Amino acid sequence: MDDARERLPLPGEPARLRAETRALLGESPEEGARLVEDATFVADPLWEEWGEILERSGMDKARFLEIARSYSAELRLWVVGERPWIHCVSGLAGRVRRRLPAPDGAASRR
After folding, report:
1. Is 103 in a helix, a strand, or coil?
2. Coil, strand or helix: which one is 61?
3. Which residues contact 107 (CB under 8 A, 6 or more apart)?
4. 71 Cβ partners below 8 Å, 6+ apart?
5. I want to staple 77 with a disulfide (CB 3.0 to 4.6 A). Which of 72, 83, 91, 107 is the partner?
6. Is there a contact between 96 and 9 (Cβ–Cβ < 8 Å)?
7. What is the pTM of this model?
8. C-alpha span between 71 and 101 (Å, rounded)
9. DSSP tag of 12
């Protein structure tokens, strides 16, 4: 079984990133919302952690970012303190694993 299908390592909470994003949401709600909805603020560091594993499993960065963007509501809950990081990152990892291309090359699940 592929590495990513079994497990993606869950990195520690990026507390500084969370604090900066939360401050932006408070100072400029529209700009902060755009940042969170774009999801690159979390996707880029996670891609550094998971990218090699995901590429070996058939997922490129564009697809990963699409999945992260679909998870932006949960990312926002983490930023504002409604969800713990481990809940958020493990949920995103599960969503990513479920959307990996099928081992036989069939279309990925949505």
Report:
1. coil
2. helix
3. 101
4. 39, 91, 92, 95
5. 83
6. no
7. 0.86
8. 19
9. P
pLDDT string in tens for the chain (110-residue length): 455 656 899 999 999 999 999 999 999 999 999 999 999 999 999 999 999 999 999 999 999 999 999 999 999 999 999 999 999 999 999 999 999 988 765 554 44
Q: How far is CA 67 from CA 28, 47, 73, 80, in A?
A: 25, 12, 12, 21
Among 88, 40, 83, which Cα is nearest to 64's?
Answer: 40
Give burial (CB, 10 Å; 0-12/13-18/19+) of 22.
middle
Tokens 């490129």 — which residue? 60
CA angle 76, 78, 81 (to 5 degrees): 110
d(C-alpha 42, C-alpha 67), whole Å: 12
DSSP label of 101: P
